[in-house]
Every structure is written in C-alpha cells, then in structure tokens.
Amino acid sequence: MTWTDVRDSDRARSVAILPVGAVEAHGPHLPIGTDVVIAEAMASSCAEQLAVDGSTVFLLPPLWYTATGFASTFPGTVGVDPRTVTDLIRQISASLEEHQITTLAIANAHLDPAHLGSLRDAVEAPPTGGRIVFLDLTHREVAARLTDEFRTGACHAGRFEGSVVLAETPDLFRREIAEGLAPNPASLATAIREGIDNFTDAGGPDAYFGWPAEATAEEGRETVRTLGTLLAAAIRSAWEEA
Ligand SMILES: [Zn+2]
Questions:
Q1: Fewest CB atoms within 10 A around its CB: which of 36, 117, 180, 236?
Q2: Do residues 105 and 61 lie in contact, with contact meaning Cβ atoms separated by under 8 Å?
Q3: Cβ contact 43:107 at 8 Å
C-alpha cells in the first residue's frame, strides 16, 4: 500500500494485524523462520475472513525477534529480552492509533512461555486509546479447535507446524529429513509446568517434538483456515465489547 491508500481507507472499523514469529531452531527439517511463516499465513487468512463483512484490514510486516529461551542453545536461534517485545508492541499500537487505527491484532505462532508473557503484558497495558487483541493458542478453548498433536503439548516443529510450512512454503520443508525423524511425544506443556526452561531438558535434543513425518499440506491448509477464523472471531468480539 501507499500512504495515500491508508489515508483514503475507512478506518472506522479497521484493524492492523501484526504477524509475530521468532528466529528459532525448528528441528533439522524446518526453517528457523517457521513461526513467521505460520504467523503470516494466519494473518492473511484472518484478513480475508474479516474483509468479507467490509472491515478494513492492514497487514503489517512481521515481527521476527522475540524471547526464545527454550531454543537458545541451538545455533541459529536469535532471542531478545521479553520486555523489549512488550515495549515494541505497545509503541506500534500507539503509532497506529495516531492515525485512527485503534485495534492492533497479534497473529502469534510462537509459544515460548516468556514470549507469551511479553504479549500478555502488552495486552494488559495498551497505550491510551489503543486496543490490542491477542489470541492465545495455549488457552484450553482455543487449543480445543486445533489438532490432536497440538493438544498433546508436543507442538514444536512436529506435524502441526510442519503441515503449515508444507502448505505455505513447501520448498522450505526438508521431506527426506522429516521422514527419517522418529516421533517425539514429549509434551512441552508438561515440561513447562515442571519448570523446565529449554528444549533439550524437555526431551527434544534436536529441537523438535511431535510427529514430523506425518505432516501434510492438506492439514496445513485446514490449520491456517482455523487460525484465521479464531483470530477473526477474537477481533470481532473485541469490537463488540468496545
Ligand atoms: Zn514454532
């Protein structure tokens, strides 16, 4: 878009969607930028679904950098302090608000607990005049809409995430390697509850969990649609509350 496109748009019922991922190890078969691939797909799907009823949707460039404590020992991972992320998101929201875009929605695909905390902090203390919508995939009622593997908590670089990469950027999925990976049913959700703070101690020495060999593009397309639907519903309900 050009700035004049934004000036001339109807911003009365508008939302800016910020895809949020990470630069983080995702097994030996998926790219380090996997979460950004997923977040951008979720944001685009959400935008399509919101545009149907005439809402104005602005897709922001993604946020690549955030807290990545669980993957920090794996080369290629790049992490920043979670407070930096809270601050940045609040500032983005305030900047949008200066131009009457008062809803910022976060399409988040990265589930590191410190990162999720940074997003919750931003949502709880939005800048004056702005509203931040964040769909937390780890909430029980949200997870209930996602895949069986996701709900087991073995949800990093497995079938769930691999399927979305296959659907969106198939050239980045290393199929021969994925097919040789044994299932790893270790649950990250359980590990987090037990106070573990890294993939290796959580039972993922190669930075993957779940069933990577079972990924399919078809499941990925379905997951993207569902993520878009869930985020669109969260945005609509925030508008209704306002
Ligand atoms: Zn991921």
A1: 180
A2: no
A3: yes
For the chain, what is the mean pLDDT?
Answer: 96
Ligand 1 centroid from CA 241, angstroms: 31
Single-letter amino acid, residue 143: A
Ligand 1 center to residue 56 CA distance, Å? 29
Q: What is d(CA 147, CA 17) in angstroms, rounded to the nearest whole number? A: 24
Distance 109 CA to ligand 1 centre (A): 6
Q: What is the pLDDT of residues 65-114, one digit of tens each?
A: 999 999 999 999 999 999 999 999 999 999 999 999 999 999 999 999 99
CA of 112 to the centre of ligand 1 (A): 9
Q: What is the pLDDT of residues 185-219, one digit of tens each?
A: 999 999 999 999 999 999 999 999 999 999 999 99
CA of 104 to the centre of ligand 1 (A): 22
Token output for 101: 């875009």
DSSP string over 157-225? SSHHHHHHHHHH-GGG--HHHHHTPPPB---HHHHHHTT--STTTTT-TTS--B-GGG--HHHHHHHHH
What pLDDT band is residue 127 in, cutting at 50, 70 and 90?
A: confident
Ligand 1 centre to CA of 94 (Å) is 28
The total number of residues written for the chain in this structure: 242
pTM of the model: 0.97
Ligand 1 centroid to Cα of residue 53, in Å, is 31
Q: Are the C-beta atoms of 77 and 25 separated by less than 8 Å?
A: yes
